[in-house]
Amino acid sequence: MILVGGLAVLVVGIGLSLGGDASCDASAEVRAGNQCITYGDGVTRTIDEAAAEGHPAAPLTLGLGGLMAAAGVWLVFFADRSVRPVTGVGDRIELARRHGWRFADIDHELLTEWADNPDFDAGQPAYAVLHGSHDDLEFVVFDFRRPDTGQAGTAWIVYLPHPSRTFVDWATAQQPLYRRPLHMVGVRADAIVDIGREQHRSTEPDSVLRQVRALAEIVHRFEARAAASS
After folding, report:
1. Among candidates 151, 158, 204, 213, which has minimal Cα distance to 181?
2. Residues with Cβ within 8 Å of residue 8, at least 6 apart in sequence
3. Where are the transmembrane segments (predicted)?
4. How many domains are contained in the chain?
5. C-alpha to C-alpha distance for 163 and 187, rounded to whole angstroms
6. What is the pLDDT at residue 213?
């Protein structure tokens, strides 16, 4: 809508620039016929010449239209649809409904499995928990509070189909694990996790599952390597 509105304002501005106003401006006095005399310089101009300068509102209209159009282009093509956490958990609930996944407000047991990770507090529950599957791998997305500061964050976990201690050795030696969009990656024999710096909310499913796809790619890369070496 912003993009369309900006383009409309641009069209109006162009029309004002080209059409002008077929009259003398406030600093001119109309004389006989179609002539204007400007008070300041005394130069005589025809009304056609005065109108060629365009409507005085044209520059402002063009500028406003340009800003609106630029904002519209950014929102349509470049903006992340992440929104503030106060919008609630409707994005995860909708994903669960649409794909047949499971959503839970609270999971008291999830973080006990990650007691050795300093970012998680095993005594605290996970919130807004979405359980699902992507590319034949089980995953979970949830919110948590850090034990030292109480700051809320979001984490994504993808589980391996077959736990392997070799995965930990392989994954911890791969520097590309920390490439975008991942934040801080942790691994164990049966899962890999990405721990966000803050809570993540989005109005777009692709944004919610972006980390899941990245983690699943790492798991499949390990499985392909293990299959090739066996």
Report:
1. 213
2. 65
3. 56-77
4. 2
5. 11
6. 95
